Amino acid sequence: MLTFTHRTLGQRVLFGEGQAADHLLAEVNRLDAHAIMLIAEATDRTRATQLAARLPQALIYDRVAPHVPLETAEHARRFAAEHGIDLLVSIGGGSATGLAKAVALSTGIPIVAIPTTYAGSEATNVWGLTENARKTTGVDDRVLPVTVIYDVALTYTLPVELSVASGLNALAHCVDSMWAPRTDPIDQAMATEGIRALSAGLPAVKKDPHDRGGREQTLYGAYLSAVAFSSAGSGLHHKICHVLGGAYNLPHAQTHAVILPHVLAYLAPAAPAAAERMATAFGSSDAVTGLNRLREALDAPVALADYGFDEAVIDEAAQLILPVVPENTPRDVGADDLAQLLRAAWAGDTPTSEVQP
Ligand code: NAD
Asked: 41-76 pLDDT, tens per residue?
């Protein structure tokens, strides 16, 4: 019997190369906006100015900082109030989108998001704010952008290394969505298609960052990954990475890239239906081999030891992760299992598809 509850978040998605300016103007008219705050990093000012030139009453705001410090958010909120802003437009990666969300959270002003990385924040109703080096996150429908405008022309400048890191992070959203706490068949369908698109797109981007098809598949896959993940929630992979990032200050993207194959190898034998769908999506005989091949093609990070993770803290890390293992994880997870997984990730072992429950 198939029973599930799924909530689809309401959002328009406009996708097309070279069409961001036209799509934005159409959205501004549709939303009847008259005072627009265009949020972009200072380094992206040229692009923001070009977009703003086509709009009525657009002000560029460029005080964007990683992980949305509270003081940055408060400054942006004051700016929005002082100028009677009625539409927020973010252009950039998760940091620019995140700042727009922080303003929307306290004001309810709608957001049109124009993403230029594969982080996926544009497709979620999750906000994040950092105060005294601690990041707080929450869920609020006011921060979900009303419209997302995807334009691969804006992604050609994203360096290959950042593209790969960001794309693998999106892939991790897909894999975790297959067995995360609120997963349902709709999330799994989107996650599977996301894996197919990302594993087709990323090698093409790695070979040639101007490959249009590769950029399109990667951006499309990143959107699907975010939609699936925001509905399904965090599975074992994200819980492990969250603990490692917080307790040992490990770099976000590299930690995800290293941990993912180990979690997949551990869980896949206990979730054969999900594993089979992922294998098909990777175009491989099994999911673990498919992910290993993709990682090889992308020259992905292999060992936590390379990023300052100390072998001596493995048992302690396993104890920190244990209480946050999601209840519905398809395979029992004990401290020894976690320590073994972390040791393999620390050493940079290539996981095989033979890890049996
Ligand atoms: P980012 O926005 O900080 O961008 C990373 C770097 O890439 C920056 O230096 C930026 O200048 C550069 N960049 C972005 N687009 C570029 C382009 N097209 N060409 C050249 N350079 C470009 O980082 P990110 O990885 O996009 O996002 C990470 C942030 O987003 C984190 O704070 C994370 O917590 C948050 N996030 C939130 C959600 C959510 O649902 N709320 C989801 C995913 C990520």
From this structure: 999 999 999 998 989 889 999 999 998 999 999 999
Residue 253, pLDDT above cutoff 90: no
What 8-state DSSP symbol labels residue 130? E
CA atoms within 13 A on the CB side of 285: 3
Does any ligand 1 atom lie closer than 6 A to the CB of residue 117?
A: yes
- In sequence order, which residues have a C-beta less than 8 Å from that of residue 279 and are 6 or more positions away? 285, 286, 287, 289, 290
Cβ(140)–Cβ(116) under 8 Å? no
Decide if pLDDT at 357 tops 70.
no
Which atom from ligand 1 is nearest to the alpha carbon of 162?
A: 7
- Give the pLDDT confidence score for residue 249 in this predicted structure: 86
CA 61/CA 23 separation, integer angstroms = 20
Sign of the C-alpha dihedral computed for residues 44, 47, 50 and 53 taken in this order? negative
CB count in 10 Å sphere of residue 23: 20
Task: Please give the number of the atom of ligand 1 that sits closest to the Cα of 143.
Answer: 41
Identify the residue with better confidence: 253 or 144: 144
Report how far apart, in Å, the C-alpha atoms of 237 and of each of 243, 264, 326, 338 are: 10, 8, 10, 11
The vertex-86 CA angle with 96 and 131, nearest 5°, equals: 40
pTM: 0.96
Whether 81 and 73 have beta carbons less than 8 Å apart is answered as no
Q: Using an 8 Å Cβ cutoff, are 152 and 216 in contact?
A: yes
Q: Is 124 in the pocket of ligand 1 (CB under 6 A)?
A: yes
Q: Is 70 exceeded by the pLDDT of residue 95?
A: yes
Ligand 1 pocket check for 217: Cβ under 6 Å: no
